[in-house]
Every structure is written in structure tokens, then in C-alpha cells.
Amino acid sequence: MAPIEQIDVRPPKGVRPPIIGPGQTFGTITDRIAGIILTKHTPAFWVLIVAVAAALFGMLQTAVGYLLAKGTGIWGINIPVGWGFAIVNFVWWIGIGHAGTLISAILLLFKQSWRTSINRFAEAMTIFAVMQAGLFPLIHTGRPWLAAYWLFPIPNTMGVWPQFRSPLIWDVFAVSTYFTISFLFWGIGLIPDFATMRDSAKTLVVRRIYGMLAMGWRGSAKHWNRYETAYMLLAGLATPLVLSVHSVVSLDFAVSVVPGWHTTFFPPYFVAGAIYSGFAMVLMLAIPFRYLYGMQDFITLRHLQNAAKVMLATGMIVAYAYGLEMFMGWYSQDKYELAMVNNRLHGPYSFYYYMLILCNILIPQSLWFNSVRSSPWKLFLVSVVVNTGMWLERFVIVVMSLQRDYIPSSWGMYWFTKWDMMIFVGTMGFFTLLFFIFIRLMPAISIFEMRTLIPQAKVKE
Amino acid sequence: MTSQPIYGLMAEFETPTELVHAAKGAYSAGYRKMDTYTPYPLEEAAEAIGAHHNRVSLIVLVGAMLGMIGGYSLEYWVSAVSYPVNVGGKPFHSWPAFIPVTFECAVLGAGLAAVFGMLALNGLPQPYHPVFNSPNFDRASRDRFYLCIESQDPRFSLSDTRKLLESFQPEEITEVPY
Fold first, then answer.
1. What is the ipTM of this complex?
2. Cα(B102)–Cα(B96) distance, rounded to whole angstroms?
């Protein structure tokens, strides 16, 4: 194997970096990825990150506990802005999840073999992000223990049922289906790798645990055949599903008659934004991961460059959507829509709108340059900026439309409280905690799919 | 040992090419009850032993149909029969508004059918299987390729089958006890 210093440099002009470092065998791939898990040595950075994340998770639990005791009055929401941080954060987190499904399902169908080394942890990212997202609709009801029959069609003695004409109920079905399918996809991807872990385990207890998770997988050709069919079909199902999820989320807004929300281009605009922020999160996780665990020959510069290109493309769609929002406001010549445009450019929250343009349109233009796409740390910074911008986008959409609707006498302002912020930051801690526990206990890169990338894996005629 | 019944004869290969060659050879020699064990999906191996058709797609189709019909029926029954609420004069059976949930339920049914159908057809979870008795078999999930001809095959005979397998020059041939 070539040393990492040689792998992680930008190749000469016109040459694309490989998708896997040279000199790998079936054995080295297995040992490298399983080696992160099958060791008694827990790295110091892992302990540090998990400690900080667990502290933030504790803060989340405290804030949610107080919320359940006192009610949603501890948040900054009021009339007219009845949807505040909870919805902003919900849309932000669920959007982040979308890149995981794009990588694992859509790129699989397009036979993009570079997806292989990042699909596993991108799927994990999806599941953990959807968990954070799901938390917000649940707690924003104030009484989540009653929310079961508000959200799901559960028979109850009052004989009431959810309203199926409402996008909010579509959302419940879309998000819960999305979580289930993502979990299944991730789960069946892990079965053969659990078998590898079982067979590489050094102690009986570890062997038993991974053995139970592997469910007796033995790599039989008949099993692989059915497995591949199921995997491809799941990918085919997840592809329209992921497009439907953020479309339905956008319909929560678009079906209403609030100026700035009532537009038909919301679904594709939201989906593009979701993939944009999701790829930013993939890079925010992949860059530290490959550096901390020395995985530069598995997650190569090629992966980072490709992710950057997807970000650039979806970022351009998002930029187009911002332009279109402004254009449609003017073109409609509807005074409320015009007032909405004016409010964005000159209203009390215009600072956030200009920050949004800076974060989501101007700074990401640096991705046109190969020097930025080939530098992990520059890419990391751009990703942080994009995720900030995407959060601001949801803030602009939710708050700026609600604060000034039709009647000026009912206009108002919205500011978050410390409880809003504690819950938001707390979910970031929870996400990080789940992610690092995942890295320590499960193969963060798909071992069996990585084996198919090396030349020895092909059958020679 | 010879009087003990065995599960089959297991040949170990170092490369996928050798394995596929051996599997094709065994198939053309008339063996049918056999299986290959590989560390990653090897389409050629499944084809060589005549196992490239499966019923997963059919199960997924059934799952999707059940989800679709179930989802739509639920919406219809709730909105038009059990709890009809007049919302802005919309009809109780307002089918366009029922499509998103119908779609999600179809995907959910299909996805559950894909995973659990695949596991059921594969007979997993399976706590015990004789092939794990084969020494070295833990490399089947790492870097080795195995062909096992099962003793249930009518053509199976300890000496002839071993001779056939030897002609493919495997790394090793072992008897797999039950």
C-alpha cells in the first residue's frame, strides 16, 4: 500500500484520483475497516468527541424535559409566527438525510461505483438525521404522548381520525416510511458485513454478538442472488420515495395560501436544497472521518471532488429557485407577493436573507475551482457555510412569510428563546453521539462492496 | 468417520475465476445440489450453479399492491365512511388528496416485502448450518471462495465427487460433517 501522503495529493492536471488506493487485497480491506471496531483501543479523539456530544445530548434532554413540563410557551413562537425553530429544524434535518439515500440508492441505480466507500455512513447519517427531524414534530405538539392518535390512524374511543386531505398527515406517512425504508436499506447492507465481523472477531462474546446480528449469513450464491435482487429493488423504491419526502414537506407550505409559500415550484426547489445540504453534511462527516481514521485510500479525493460537484449542481438549482421566487413575486403583480419580496429585501429580517444569498449562492461558487474541490479543509469550510445557509433558507421561508401576511395589524416579530437554541444545538449533539457510536461498533464503510472494487474481484474469462 | 453421514464436500479456491470454473464444471458433470460461498456477490457463480432466478420481485410486487390497496382503503374508509368531515366543501372521497399517502404505503409495503421476503426465502435467521463446521470457512466472509457439493445430490459419491473437485485444483478439499 502506498503511504497516505502520496494518496492524498492532488494528481496532475487531467488525471482523476482513483476511487480506491492502490495495492489493496480482500484481506487488507477487511482488516482496515474491521480494525476500527475489533480493537480494545478507543482513540482519544473519539472519547473527547463523544463526551462533548453526550453533554449536548444531556442538554437536549433537559430542555425537552422542561418543555414537556411547561409547554411550548417556553419557545419564542406566538401569533403570528406559530411555526418557529421546530419547523425550521425539522426541514433542515430531514433535508440533510436526503443525500444518504441519493448516494445509496440513486447512485447505485446509475452504477456509480464511487458511491461504495461512502454509502454506509451516508445511510447512517440519513437515519440519524431523520431521527433528529422526527423529534421536532413530536415535541412541537407539546403532548407527544397524545400525538400518536393525532398523527397516526389509531382507533380510539372518541372515534376521531386524522385528516387525510392535509399535507401534515401526508408528511407523517412520508417521513415514517422514509425512516423505515432507510433503516431497512442500511440494515440489509450490514448483514454480510456483520458476518465478516463475526468471522474476524477475536473473542467469543464479540463473535456471538455479531453472529446474532449476521443472522447466519454464509455468503451462499443463492442467498447473494436474492439479496442483490432485494437490494436493487429497495434502491428502486427509495429513489421515488426520497423525491416524494421533501416534496411532501414542501407541500406543508405550498398548499397554504401564505404569501411566499403558495408556489408550485416548491417541491423541486426543496428536493434540490435537501440534496445540497445533505452532501454538505456528507463532506462534514467524511473529511474528519478519513483524516482521524487514516482512511484516505478508501475515501479518496475523487469522492470529495464528486460530492463537491453534486453540491455545485444542486446549489445552482437552489440559486435558480431563489431567483424564481423573486421573479414570480414581481411577475404575479399581486400586492401581497410584492410585499413579500420587499420584506425579504428590506424587511426587519433582511440581514438573514442577504446572509442566505452569501452562504448558499456566492461562497459555494468557489467550488468551480479544482483547487477548492481537491482541498479537504477548504471543502469542509464550504460545507459548513452551505449547511448554515440551508438552515437560514428555512428560517427565511418559515419566519419571514408568517411574520407579515395580509393584515398589517397582525404583523409581528419572532425571536427564539434559549430553550429553542438548547434543543437545536442539543440535536446536533445527539446526531454526533449516534454517529460516533456507530463508527465504533459497526463497519462505517461497506466491506463487501469495497471488495468488488479491486481488480482481483472480477472473474476472468 | 466414513460411516458418519456428511453434509457435503467443500473445495476452497483462491480466486473467483477458479471458483466459477469449478462450479461450471460440476454443473456440467450433472451435479445440481451444490452452492458456492463467496465474500461478495458474484453473479457468475450464481449463474454457474443455475441459481439466477428468484421470487423476490414477485413478493415485492405483492407487498406494493397490498400497501397501495391498504393505504387507499384506509383513507377512503376514514374520510368517507367512519369520520366524514366537510373541509371547504371538498368531497368526502377526495381521491387526489389521497394519492401521497397511497404512494407512501405502497413503498412501505414493497420495502418490507423486499427485506423480509428475501430473508424468508434465504431461510434466515438460521442459527446453525453445517457449512460452518468446515475448517477455514471463516475465510468465506473474507478472501476465499468455496464450492460445496452436497451429499443429498443423487450423483454424490465420496470418491468420485472428490476426484471431480480435485480436477479443478482447489487449495483444499474437506468433508463437511453435519
1. 0.93
2. 10
